[in-house]
Sequence to fold (397 residues):
Amino acid sequence: MTATWILRNVRPLGAAASDIVIMGESIGAVVPAGTATAADAPVVDGRGLLALPGFINAHAHVDKSWWDQPWVSYGGVPSTQGRIEHERAHRDELQIPSVGGVEKILRQFLRHGTTATRSHVDVDLGLGLRGVEDVLEAGRNLGGAIEIEIVAFPQDGVIRRPGVVKLLEEAASMGVKNIGGLDPAGIDRDPVAQLDALFDIVDRTGVGLDIHLHDGGELGKFQIELIADRTLAVGAQGRVNVAHGFALGEISDREQQELLPRLAEAGISWTTVAPVRTAPLPWRTMRESGMGLGLGTDGIRDLWNPFGDGDLLSVALTFARLHGMRTDDDLARAVSLASTEAAPFVHRDQHDLTAGSRADIVLVDAQNVPDALVLGPRRETVVAGGRVVVEDAQVVI
Fold:
């Protein structure tokens, strides 16, 4: 296959100046700057900018956002249940979810260099599967520029809402790769029943499970242990993720050291949005044990909170600060968590600036990767699936 076009003179992850040869949707080769040639292939000047892999948002809620719409004042009760009730009461008047609303936040993701995302999408008795359909349509409308992996998410509970388990089964049958869960103890008040229902679907259909766990301390630890036990019991290693999982950072060092090998054995991964005022995760030990760790934006300007702008590089910086990361290696690791190391969260075998990777490339004006993290420069150019989707920091699709 001949080159589609050539990205000339960029510095991949701060390395020597190079040309990146794009072949269709993929990177065909990375060669020294000025040496790539191909008859009739267009050439785009990278101007010596730093090249990063596209960011992968491992925990988003693209169906909920009112981004680029009139301001909505926060009115929720400061608890998980209170926010659920507030959202259910007001989402219809704000047309949440909608295809147009999802498109707006996906374009914002692209503007900030995110080219793939795992998004939880609400599935409940009021919405049915409409939110899943809206997200899929919005993704198609953008020509697949941003790849979306959906988690059918039971935001209003599982066992306490008869009929939700059936909806999750329907989502799995329509090709959704993951189902979700939510605080088996704190929301459903029956962790055994919720986990039994969810893992039954996982076992029968082969989908993954991505479960929100806000419950902290010993209660949260107890549920993490239950999740690990069931993962091993049904042979779902590598298909289960815990989102938030605040309890892991709150328990003692001794308890962490006892729990982490069990999580690693079960192949359970973790996603965090690095919220302020939360306990740091034992990220080094998690990495050493082989556990996957991804970063996400969570909800952005939705009925849960008015914060966020879709910039995953900013989340990586918050993660670095929360965890006391200061060395160049650690700062580069934070960026890797938001990009290369997040590949499994969207079922990619590789995601990097190397031949064979999807051509997802972000160009920024920075000295090196740590400088890009701390500086947070605008994304000058973004390539997604071999297409230029951002030029001069503006979305052009």
